[in-house]
Amino acid sequence: MTTLHNPHDRFFKATFGRTEVAAEFLERYLPPAVAETLDWTTLRTEKDTFLDPELAQHPADLLYAVNLRAGGRGYVHMLFEHKSYVEARINLDLLRYRVRIWEQWLNEGNTGLLPVIVPVVFYHGAAAWRVSRQFAETVDDAPMLRAYVPSCVYHLVDLSAYRDEELRGAVRLQVALLTLKYVFRDELRERLPGILGLLRELEESSSGLDFIRALLRYLAQVASTDRLSNEELRQAVTQALSGGGELMMTIAEQWEQQGIEKGIEKGEARLLRQQLTWRFGALPGWVETKLAQAESARLEAWAKRVLDAPTLEAVFAER
Question: pTM of the full predicted structure?
């Protein structure tokens, strides 16, 4: 499984990696005609990611296999977007993902017609989503050559387009959707007590407590102090949940330790960045992405290669 350093990505996978949550979400938020075509009782997680260097700007995605009610198997590929800007080339990226999924299907020894893939973009960023959902609209239009341009769309779930009362479902799903909707907004402080109040029925089960811990850790890591201070979060949790105080104490300890470890990693990444710049000159974006996401062990391995690697690519080559 891919190691995720971004708290948004970790919370997304912790929530939608559970097939019952993903099935309910997709059945509710895909177009009705599409949802009715798929047998949601058969949904299963197929692969946790199709991340590669060309698609590194999209760290979190999930692929689900699902049976078609009319027979056969298809896939739903869900890409999670939380950046403060909208990725302009997402149509091209989604096409690349589809090709990789089909390649895996063929490599597994399957034959015949390729399975259908339903691409879904789940977005909760701050900027308005203005990218076309039709791939053909991103290609220069030559009327006599349109037959050669792929005609494919993706389904967009933009949480800002939904009213709170439309974000329904079982507790895990509803809480996750409301949290993701407001985590970048000033209204988070006033909405949080109501969101946390929904969690009371999960306190009695171990899996429910795991979700509560994941949620609180996510809020503690991503809520900026002007939207929600640590003390305000602690008070809201203590008031909403019977064991809220103990939960926050445990998370605070873990958070402090993660902060220490992250500080060490940032220092190591800063030193490696300087070494790479001295050796190879200005660093491209893909290198900055790798340095930002790498753990200490990986940074140390790359640092050992800096002195004798012939190229920048050789420093980061998988071995």
Answer: 0.73
